[in-house]
Amino acid sequence: MFGEQQRFVLLLIAPAALLLLLFQVVPIVIGANASFRDWALYNPRKTWIGFDHYVAVISDPAFLYVVLPNTFLFMVLSVAGALVVGLALALLLNRPFRGQKLVQTILLVPLMVAPVIAAIMIRWIFNDQFGIVNVVLEAIGLDGQPWLVQRWSAFGIILLTDIWLWTPWFTLLLLAGLQSLPKEPFEAAAIDGTTTWRVFRFLTLPMLRPVIVVCVVIRAIDAFRTFDIVWTLTGGGPGRSTELFSLYAYVHAFLNLDLGRGSAAAIIGGLIILVIGVVLYRLVDRIAKV
Amino acid sequence: MAAISLSKLNKHYGSLFHAVKDVDLEIADKEFVALVGPSGCGKSTTLRMIAGLEDITSGDIRIGGNVVNHLPPRDRDVAMVFQNYALYQHMSVYDNLAFGLRNKKTAEAEIKVAIDRAAGMLGLHELLQRKPKQLSGGQQQRVALGRCIVRNPQVFLFDEPLSNLDAKLRAQMRIEIKRLHAEIPTTSVFVTHDQVEAMTLGDRVVIMRDGRVQQTGTPLQVYGKPANKFVAGFIGAPAMNFIDVTVRSETGATSVEGEGLRLTVGASQAPALAAHNGRRVILGVRPEHLVLGDGAPGLGFDARVEVVEQLGSEILLETRVGGASVTAARVPAETVIARDDQVRLSAQAGRLHFFDPETELPISG
Questions:
Q1: pLDDT tens for residues B168-208?
Q2: Residue of chain A whose alpha carbon sits nearest to that of B88
Q3: Phi, psi at residue A219, to the nearest 5°?
Q4: DSSP bridge partners of B245
């Protein structure tokens, strides 16, 4: 049925295909099946209920007015924050200075810290009784704040943690991008009498755009499914005010043990990511062609 | 007035590499000077130091009488054309041309006038809305030239601008640059490793080797009176033939003898050579100064043909004379000649060069 070469190719891709099938396709199919059933652990009959879970999720005020806005806000701000700081650091590291290698190594430290560990550290830093931030504030005569029990300060701290964790990743990729840019246009610009700002605005940024867009696409999709740091820092609280999409699905599936509703939420999230991914990839394609 | 003056210019890269050594050069206002030499001879580094893209280690650079040693490039009022064009790929041709003027906050109306003028000179009108990627190499280099012209600088610097073009386009662009310099007489420094470009473009040619200037002169001077053996071999295509010979000075006649050849030296060169009587010297003769057959008496020798290169307009002959390889150009294209033929070659009178084998300096009267 197959030629020798085709058999060889099949043999090569078989392990990857098998893994993909077992750990990606099968769970998605089981999850999709669960999302159409009343698949709570206390209901062994797993009754078919059609789109009820989907309707419940998209008509849930907490999902519509808290979880979705939080998720998008988090995605936009964390990607934008890490991009801006990462780009600034990459620009700094792109010019030689004494101790540059040392600074570069120190800047990469957050990449080596597990997100959960980082979140635990940050939680302690902002602890309202023992945290260093409040200690410092009180030492200079200001009032300590209950950082993690107010919605926007808690959300801000989640963002801060995520930006801290991901900035080195942006720095590393953007620095590689900067170093691969041709030197001559910058020399031509120097001779043309271009100011530093105009070089950045009209040369560096446009020339780096393909790298920036790829970084943003990858990171945006990743940010959409952030779970660990939010769960560790606030658990979605205070109340449900910092809950992101992944927490919403997790709480329904594994705390409320309603696997059907959790699966439905996960599939809705998957579809949203799919749409965002396609839109962003089209964007990449268009920009790369410029 | 934008004369350029380099005095005792040096460039070290670390402690190991001395790229430019004590270069002294005076370039007059509106003069077109070609810096030529093999790869790594320091010509591009010299140009980049004039532009301000490389720091100088020691010495002085003056443009228009002002010392510019530590001025940033933008304050030197120079424009530069790069080997790989260095165009802003994401901008249209128009925006590429306008960029330098917009830096100076020039009014858009003025920019348009300047671009129109440059585009007219270089035939860029059709291309103004295109991106550099959509242009051929020659068109991109014309845009790079245009970018320099619109700024109306004191000095044009060219860093091997034709090296990335094919032979035909290179010849066209050479003419274009020459025409441009006639239309807009601006002090220009043109770096190239191609001696044909240097000879055809330069009012004066500066030949460099290992960071040092070997000779500065008009194309005719460097061709006719090379300052040393290196210049003699570098300038001219095909390259000058060099043959080891021994000087024989007898009463009334001076001649040189090599393996398979004995040439009588003309009266103008005889006295200088006579001082080297019995010693080994290097005879240099350009391929285009060798003719097939018997020429002036005492200037002929026999050679065995090794390679025949038919160029259509002429034949290039690679021959062997004793142990030396000798090239002869300007052999009429119709000549019937084949490998291993024995031929008679004659040097043109007064066209022989002699060099001291140790100093490589010319031996002349």
A1: 888 888 998 998 899 889 999 999 999 899 999 999 999 99
A2: A185
A3: -70, -35
A4: B281
Q: Across-strand partners of B216?
A: B206
Note whether A11 contacts B: Cβ–Cβ < 8 A: no
One pLDDT digit (tens) per residue for chain B, 365 residues: 689 999 999 999 988 899 999 999 999 999 999 999 999 899 999 999 999 999 999 999 999 989 999 999 989 999 999 988 899 999 999 999 999 999 889 999 999 999 998 898 888 888 999 999 999 888 998 899 899 889 889 999 999 988 888 888 888 889 989 988 998 899 999 999 998 999 999 999 999 999 999 999 999 999 999 999 999 999 998 999 999 999 998 877 889 999 888 999 888 888 888 888 899 999 999 999 999 888 788 889 999 999 999 999 999 999 999 888 999 888 899 989 989 999 999 998 889 999 999 999 999 75
A203/B52 CB distance under 8 A: no
Asked whether B21 and B211 are in contact (CB, 8 A), the reply is yes
CA angle B138, B180, B85 (to 5 degrees): 35
The C-alpha angle B345, B222, B280, rounded to 5 degrees, equals: 55
Q: What is the predicted pLDDT for the residue at B365?
A: 55
User: How far apart are alpha carbons B325 and B241 in whole angstroms?
Assistant: 8
Closest chain B CA to residue A196: B103
Q: Which residues lie below 8 Å from residue B54, measured CB to CB, with a gap of 6+?
A: B11, B45, B48
Query: Looking at chain A from residue 184 to 203, which residues have their Cβ under 8 Å from any Cβ of chain B?
Result: 184-185, 187-195, 198, 202-203
> What is the number of alpha carbons within 13 Å of residue A127 lying toward its C-beta?
10
Structure tokens at A14: 């078989």
Cβ pair A191:B73 closer than 8 A: yes
Domains (range + CATH), chain A: 52-289 (1.10.3720.10)
Contacts of B82 in chain A (CB under 8 A): 184, 187-188
Pick from B79, B84, B90: CB nearest A191:
B79
Residues 6+ apart with CB under 8 A from B159: B44, B47, B48, B80, B81, B82, B83, B191
Flag if B87 and A185 touch (Cβ within 8 Å).
yes
What is the β-pairing status of strands B17-27 and B212-217? Answer: unpaired
Paired with B319 in beta bridges are B305, B326
Q: Residues of A61-82 as b/e, b for ≥16 C-beta within 10 angstroms?
A: eebeebbbebbbebbebbbebb
* Helix extents (H) in B88-187: 93-103, 108-122, 137-151, 167-183
Taking phi over 0 as left and psi of -120 to 50 as alpha, with beta for the rest, B37 belongs to left
ipTM tops 0.90: no
Ranges under pLDDT 50 in chain A = none
Bin A237: left if φ > 0, else alpha if -120 < ψ < 50, else beta. beta
Pick from B52, B86, B104: which is nearest to A188 by CB?
B86
Structure tokens at A95: 């010019």
Distance from CA of B7 to the nearest CA of A (A): 22
Among all chains, which residue has been given the structure tokens 């606030």?
A234
A vs B, Cβ pairs < 8 A, gives 66
Q: A33 with A25: CB under 8 angstroms?
A: no
